[in-house]
Design a protein that fits this description.
globular; 417 residues; single chain; mainly alpha
Length: 417
């Protein structure tokens, strides 16, 4: 069985277009150098700012992402996927370096918002381009490959960042900026534009609002997409909570910063080792059920952090968390790509980025507030958030007895633009 799945996986990877491998390589480079944001809480508290202020800075990052969710999806569908990706990557590298030299807290808030804005322009364009390039029957494999490349970088990056942290924060900021700009240059050299709409003669503001009005009217009638987007929000809140609070919580347990990097790296290593094979198995089942199980494990894994005291205990909790992530997201990414009409792919991905951006606004502030009030028991919020996501998906299952499968989901007719 495993050999058959592996052979099928290799055959599907060989059939992917060359440009997809550029995206894989770029994601690895960029995520490997994603040094700053996971350690921003430690950086700011080390400079004398309070936990509340650190949470505000992370929330500002989410606020920037909230705006980017609208702009990024629109740009991806108008000026092209490649151009949007370059703007995001090059702009993010510049903002990261400017953040290092900021000292006044209002300036820090502004620049973290700019970092969030430039960073979150990227996902709608990249996911839409991948959907453009890959045939429907290979998208699960392609999106799993994207996650593999991201998590390969994630497996190595935090461990290296944790080591560098003992020497200089400047190295973290420079490394983050250089890797982001490097990938931006790669997009210009080796990626196609992807699909884009005809240019409009209307004003930019009118074009954006009109395009998004059409998209929201269309998406709100696409029930499977709406249900997934709603269920994603509590999960999108939980993930930044984990990243922001975990470093502080482990420090308060007496563990060094390098251990935080190792726990984060556990996530990436496990995904590299297991996700592709796991996805070849889970793709045979109804997507909503697979996603429900994954989101449930997400919440359980986060809640186990409440009882962790040692590095092995934190790593064990991360294993459960990561199994949930591996179960849910590759299937979910291909499933939602299937639901989007061709001329709205960027904006549909923008709606999902909007959920992530809202989570990145709420999660850091909520996490820091809960940690300040309840200490390590704040992690039990994972059960609540994970349970809420599961409840949304399960209630929909009860109401709609036959949920669409991955290969047979029927999107609403897109001819109403």
């Amino acid at each position: 069985m495993k050999i058959v799945l592996l052979q099928k996986l290799i055959a599907e990877f060989r059939a992917l277009p060359r440009a997809v491998y550029v995206i894989f390589a770029g994601n690895f480079i960029n995520r490997f150098g994603h040094f700053v944001m996971p350690f921003l809480t430690l950086y700011l508290t080390g400079k004398g700012y309070s936990l509340g202020q650190a949470g505000m800075a992370m929330a500002a990052n989410g606020m920037g992402g909230l705006v980017a969710s609208f702009i990024g999806g629109f740009l991806a569908d108008t000026i092209g996927r490649r151009n949007t990706m370059f703007i995001s990557l090059a702009g993010n590298g510049l903002c990261i370096m400017a953040l290092y030299f900021a000292n006044a807290f209002p300036v820090i808030l502004l620049l973290t918002a700019c970092c969030g804005f430039t960073s979150w322009i990227y996902p709608p364009a990249a996911n839409a381009l991948l959907t453009d390039l890959v045939d429907e029957d290979k998208r699960v494999t392609a999106f799993a490959g994207v996650r593999l490349s991201i998590n390969a970088g994630w497996a190595l990056g935090p461990a290296v960042a944790g080591f560098l942290l003992g020497y200089s924060f400047l190295a973290l900021f420079v490394g983050d900026a250089v890797t982001s700009i490097t990938y931006g240059i790669m997009t210009l050299l080796w990626l196609p534009h992807g699909l884009c709409a005809r240019k409009s003669s209307r004003s930019a503001w009118h074009a954006v609002t009109s395009a998004w009005g059409t998209t929201f009217r269309h998406a709100i009638r696409n029930r499977p997409f709406v249900v997934y987007a709603l269920a994603l929000l509590p999960i999108a809140t939980l993930l930044p909570m984990l990243i922001v609070v975990q470093g502080v919580a482990m420090r308060d347990r007496g563990l060094p910063a390098s251990n935080f990097g190792l726990v984060m790296a556990t996530n990436g290593v496990l995904i590299i080792a297991c996700e592709l094979i796991l996805t070849q198995w889970t793709r045979r089942f109804t997507p909503s059920k697979v996603i429900t199980i994954g989101f449930g494990l997400f919440g359980i894994g986060a809640s186990l952090m409440a009882f962790a005291h040692t590095l092995p205990e934190y790593m064990s909790a991360m294993v459960v968390f990561t199994v949930g992530e591996m179960t849910a997201f590759p299937i979910a990414m291909a499933y939602t790509a299937k639901l989007a009409p061709q001329d709205m792919r960027g904006r549909y991905q923008g709606i999902l980025s909007l959920m992530w951006a809202l989570g990145n606004m709420i999660g850091p502030v909520l996490g820091m507030a809960l940690y300040a009030r309840f200490g390590h028991m704040a992690w039990l919020a994972g059960l609540i958030l994970g349970g809420l996501a599961v409840a949304i998906l399960r209630l929909n299952e009860v109401r709609v007895k036959a949920a669409p499968t991955l290969l047979h989901a029927v999107p609403i007719n897109a001819n109403d633009q």
